[in-house]
Amino acid sequence: MSWLDALEVAPEVAAELPDAGEVTAYLRGSAKPRVAEVLAQAEREDRTLIQPRCGVGGHQEMLALLRALEDGARPGVLTVTIDSYTRLARFAAARRLLEADPSRLNGYPLVAHGWRRGRELDRAVAVPLEIRHGSPDTQDLFAVAVASGITSFEGGGIAYNLPYSKDVPLTRSLRGWQNVDAACGELARDGVIVDRELFGTLTAVLVPPSISLAVTLLEAVSAARQGVRCISVAYPQGGEAHQDIAALRSIRELAHRYLPASVRVYPVLHQFMGVFPRHPAAAGALIRYGGLVARLGRATKVINKTDQEAVGIPDAAANIRGVRTVARGLADAAGPVPLDESRVGEEMYWMQREVDELVGPVLEGDCLPDDIAAAFRAGTLDIPFSASGHARSAVLPKRDAHGAIRYLDAGGLPFSAPTLRFHARRLAGQPRERDLIESLSADINYFLTTDVRSAAGIVRPRTRRTTVSAHPRHM
């Protein structure tokens, strides 16, 4: 069976694709490093890669953007962000808008442009590309991306459904993504490793770390069972340094516990995805802080934000500034950084315990897609503030006095009594707002009212407190 046979591709899309064997030969014969190879080299050299987001509708404009970012920022990986029509498989609508006015598209319509232009994008820069999108069922897009020579593909059946779609059944999205992972398995058997990045960011609104880690872990288990050999687990920066560092460091430990040794796993930090400061200096401080957290958390890659985050889609210059600001944050870890390792260790213990309590019952079943869907129906898996009718969204998060995200109400999550008591203790003594909306709004707008340095708890200029190594060993 070829990698293309593993997919259910629409006939009109399949008719435009090259032969599966030609694609495999093209990928194997390319001298360009694949994303999996770049990640492995970064880990060997104890470096953290930086990757900006980018995507525009026009082909020449996309080529120019990629070249500008490579020349001006020297990122480790570059992104092709896909437009909303293509994400929803509305390829004809994307093609009409591409012909009429490509500037109205909010990303690159790869299926409409076709795999030949996709290869032009890939050959235009020396660094490898990754596809970012948001599709609940993405088999057509994946086929065109692979034919384009692109070797990293983000998403999963939970994380690219429940945060984005109102009424796509989980069993449908999970089985579609199973096919994508099976295609990656076939490619791996033919010597081509595709990196599968899992989107732990979810709704990006006060996501408790254990929910992010549990969702990506279940998607990783599913991917590994289909033969995927390289998995990047992306975690969303919540805002409190010790908790975020603990989550990033937990990724490898959880992978060792639940995944086969043949699967390479790389932690990735998505810089803060919540409400961003409008003032460039404040935004820059938050971006730099994210770089520091990524390094101390031993992330292999960080997806950067820009100082234009609060005002619109960033231009190339802002993205270049963002990459350089992250690089300064990574370098900050080489200096004296006061970090309470006992707090990090405590956070790791509890969030890993929570993940075990969430995924353990699901993995006891016989059919993972059905068991995941059943758990979401029952509320024993859940995502706060989901757009989907297939998640209960009964979980209520809240920041504690340090800014860490806790469970104010765990809904139907199957947490033990000690776990629930831990969160209750962390929230004890918090001032009570006038109503729930006020409380949630304050937590969501955290970095509009809280100075980055005080929120971090570890970013204090001119301090001489206890230091940690600039290059901590991987766990």
UniProtKB/TrEMBL annotation:
Transmembrane segments: none annotated. The keyword Isomerase applies. InterPro entries: Cbl-dep_enz_cat, Glu_mut_E, Glu_mut_E_C_dom_sf. The keyword Isomerase applies. Pfam families: Met_asp_mut_E. Gene3D superfamilies: 3.90.970.10, Methylmalonyl-CoA mutase (3.20.20.240). Signal peptide: none annotated. Keywords: Cobalamin, Cobalt, Isomerase. It comes from the Bacteria. This is Methylaspartate mutase.
